[in-house]
Amino acid sequence: MIRMERKMFFFTKLCTVLIFTNCVSGDYPKAQNVSWLSINFKTLLLWDPEPTNYSYTVEYSIIGQNRKKNQHCIRTMETECDLSNSLVDLKAIYSADVLSEPLRGVNSDLIEFPHTTSERFTPYEDTLIGRPEFKIEVSKDKRKITLYVEDPLTALFNKQNQQRTIRDVFADELQYKVTFGKATSTGKKTKISASSEIELDRRDVDPGVSYCFNVQAYIPSRSTDKQLGELSQRQCSPGDDKSVFEEYGIGVIATFILLIIMIIVVAIGVTVVCCKRRRNANRSGKEGVPLRSV
Ligand SMILES: *[C@@H]1O[C@H](CO)[C@@H](O)[C@H](O)[C@H]1NC(C)=O
Ligand SMILES: *[C@@H]1O[C@H](CO)[C@@H](O)[C@H](O)[C@H]1NC(C)=O
C-alpha cells in the first residue's frame, strides 16, 4: 500500500515537472511585494496582487523550525494576514511564505505551489512603537513641569486576558525621549527619561514660561534605526502673564504705553483750552448767570 502511494506521489511529481500545464488547473501568479507592517505588536503580513481565480495561504515559522499556518490565512482571498497572536515568541526571528493555491474546495495535483518568502521579522526588535499620549502638569510654584506619559497599548494580551502595554513588554528597556522648547522660540532641547513620568525642573525649564513638548518611545537596546517610536502630538504648558513681554518685546510695549500717555495729554490739553474759551464767552455774554459747571 505504502509503496503504491509513493509511486503515485512520484508520478504526480513527475507529471508536475514534465507537463505541468496539463496537470495543474491554473498557473497561479506568485505573490509580490510581501512585507511586514507592525505597530505596537499588531503585525500584518501584506502582499499583492488581489487574487482572481486562486487563493493565498500563509505559512510562518521561526527560522529553522516547522512551518505553521494561521487558520484565518488558509486559502484566503485577502491580501493580508494578521499574525499578531501567531508570533508568540517575541524575540524569535520569523519568516513567512505566501503560497498561491487553488480556490477553497478546488483540488489540485500540484505538490508545491508558487510561493514568495518574506523578509525576516522579529517582533521585539522590529515593531514600530506608535505615538504616545501624555498630560502636562505645572507645579504650584511653576518651577517644575511633569509629563505623564500613557504607555501605548499593544495588540498582545496577558494570561488574565488584559491588553499589555509596551511597558509590560519592554520593561526597563523602554525609555521616553522628550523634545521641547519655549513656545515663543524655535530652539529645541531633548531629555531622555527611563520613567513614564518625566520631570523637568530648573535645569530644564524657566519658571512660568510656556513650553511645548513632543514625546516618543526610545528603546536603546534596538538597532539605531529602530530605537525611536512615532512622535506624539505637540502639546504646550500654560505660561505666565509675563509672556506678553516675551511675545512682543519691551520696546513695542514701551512705545504702546508712550502712545497712550500722549493721547491722554492731548485730550487734557484740548479740554482745558475748550473750557477756557467757554468761560471767556460766558463772561463776555450773560453776566450774573451762575456757572452750572466748574
Ligand atoms: C478558474 O479556474 C477554473 C479551474 O481551476 C477554471 O475552470 C476556470 O475557467 C477559471 N476561470 C477563470 C476566469 O480563469
Ligand atoms: C508592488 O509594489 C510596487 C511599488 O509600490 C507597485 O508599483 C506594484 O504595482 C506592486 N505590485 C503589485 C502586483 O501590485
From TrEMBL:
Gene assigned in the entry: F3
One Pfam family named in its UniProt record: Tissue_fac
Subcellular location: Membrane
Summary of the function given for this chain in its UniProt record: Initiates blood coagulation by forming a complex with circulating factor VII or VIIa. The [TF:VIIa] complex activates factors IX or X by specific limited proteolysis. TF plays a role in normal hemostasis by initiating the cell-surface assembly and propagation of the coagulation protease cascade.
Topological category with respect to the lipid bilayer: Single-pass type I membrane protein
InterPro entries noted in UniProt: FN3_dom, FN3_sf, Ig-like_fold, Interferon/interleukin_rcp_dom, Tissue_factor, Type-II_Cytokine-TF_Rcpt
Transmembrane segments: 248-274
Gene Ontology molecular function: any one: cytokine receptor activity
Residues in Interferon/interleukin receptor domain copies: 127-236
Highest taxon of source: Eukaryota
Family classification: Belongs to the tissue factor family.
Signal peptide annotation: 1-26
UniProt GO BP: blood coagulation
GO cellular component assignments: plasma membrane
Keywords assigned by UniProt, alphabetized: Blood coagulation, Disulfide bond, Glycoprotein, Hemostasis, Lipoprotein, Membrane, Palmitate, Signal, Transmembrane, Transmembrane helix
Subunit text: Interacts with HSPE; the interaction, inhibited by heparin, promotes the generation of activated factor X and activates coagulation in the presence of activated factor VII.
Name listed for the protein in its UniProt record: Tissue factor
Organism: Oncorhynchus kisutch (Coho salmon)
Fibronectin type-III domain ranges (all copies): 13-102
